[in-house]
Write a structure and sequence with these properties.
This protein is of the alpha+beta class and about 290 residues long. The protein is built from 9 helices and 11 strands. Strand 3, helix 1 and strand 4 form a beta-alpha-beta unit. Bound molecules: adenosine-5'-triphosphate and L-homoserine. L-homoserine binds next to strand 1, strand 2, helix 5 and helix 6. Pathway: Amino-acid biosynthesis; L-threonine biosynthesis; L-threonine from L-aspartate: step 4/5.
């Protein structure tokens, strides 16, 4: 195999998973992006990070983008002698906005772009499968990879995705501290009452309709009984804001594993607790894009 020296760059969107009832299935790509560039060098590993995570992420082979790149290089046929990486991050870490998915999707697409003929050696289906294997569940990586509204699932071990168009406008309320996905998943029960599962199945179906043409259904469609209340103890202020907005009739959910709160509305920024940041965002329609090479 032959490496492209580069640099190559990729732009990857943030994503909100679950969207209320669609646990581990629904994803929405958001107009907030990380940009990562990479080039092949003679030896070693050099990582430069600006923006989100600059004081927290490791600058060695355990860096998530590097781990994803190495996994992709291994599938493509071999690793380059050395790598130089530059990350400009806008997606906050550990907040439920798909930072890990963006890092994984970005890393896989960068590695593919750094190999001559990479697109044929690792097509989109195989690249998507790798991102799901690395992330462990498909919802965020599906939206980050393909943009728009995504329904993703895993059949046996095989990941699949259906992408839909939506132009819903959202407001995200981002608290100052993180809750890791690992911790939030640890709060979920092994089993749930049948009636709760039934409510979620109906609302998840309704949510797809609401986001693709029936927005007046959003308040009913965003009800969840499978994860948000179980995780409230790890993010009490987020849960309080969620309840307050919903009581006002604003369709609101916990984004991904939290603690970010997402409202399918504009003009609600004033509801933000002190110290939180607020972003009014549109849907990213393009998904991850290799922007130079
Ligand atoms: N751009 C990045 N570069 C390096 N590491 C990253 C990057 N983004 C995320 N990570 C790693 O992933 C961790 C955050 O992943 P986690 O799954 O807990 O949260 P999230 O992906 O932001 O939220 P969610 O999965 O709920 O949307 C960070 O603490 C960091 O270790
Ligand atoms: N579906 C995932 C999204 C976070 O990665 C969860 O809620 O745990």
């Amino acid at each position: 195999m032959t490496f492209v020296i580069g640099p190559v760059a990729v732009r990857v969107p943030a994503s909100s998973a679950n969207l209320g009832p669609g646990f581990d299935a629904l994803g929405l790509a958001l107009d907030l992006h990380d940009e990562i560039s990479a080039e092949v060098v003679d030896a070693g590993l050099e990582i430069r990070v600006t923006g989100e995570g600059r004081d927290g992420v490791p600058l060695d082979e355990t860096h998530l983008v590097v781990r994803a790149m190495h996994a992709a290089f291994d599938l493509l046929g071999g690793r380059p002698p050395g790598l130089r990486l530059s990350c400009t991050n806008a997606i906050p870490h550990g907040r439920g906005l798909g930072s890990s998915a963006a890092a994984i999707v970005g890393g896989v697409l960068l590695a593919r772009a750094l190999v001559a003929g990479g697109d044929e050696l690792l097509d989109d289906a195989a690249a998507f499968q790798l991102t799901v294997d690395l992330e462990g569940h498909p919802d965020n990586v599906a939206a980050a990879f393909f943009g728009g509204l995504t329904i993703a699932w895993v059949d046996g071990a095989a990941a699949a995705v259906e992408r839909l168009d939506t132009d819903v406008a959202v407001t995200v309320f981002v608290p100052p501290s993180a809750v890791s996905t690992e911790k939030a998943r640890g709060l979920l029960p092994e089993s749930v009452p049948h009636r709760d599962a039934a409510v979620n199945a109906g609302r998840a179906a309704l949510l797809v309709a609401a986001l693709t043409g029936a927005p007046h259904r959003l308040i009913s469609a965003t009800e969840d009984r499978l994860h948000q209340s179980y995780r409230a103890e790890a993010m009490p202020d987020s849960y309080k804001l969620l309840r307050a907005l919903r009581v006002e009739g604003v369709p609101t959910i916990i984004s991904g594993a939290g603690p970010t709160v997402l409202a399918f509305a504009r003009g609600v920024a004033d509801a933000a607790p002190q110290g939180w940041s607020v972003h009014e965002l549109d849907v990213d329609q393009a998904g991850a894009q290799v922007v130079s090479g």
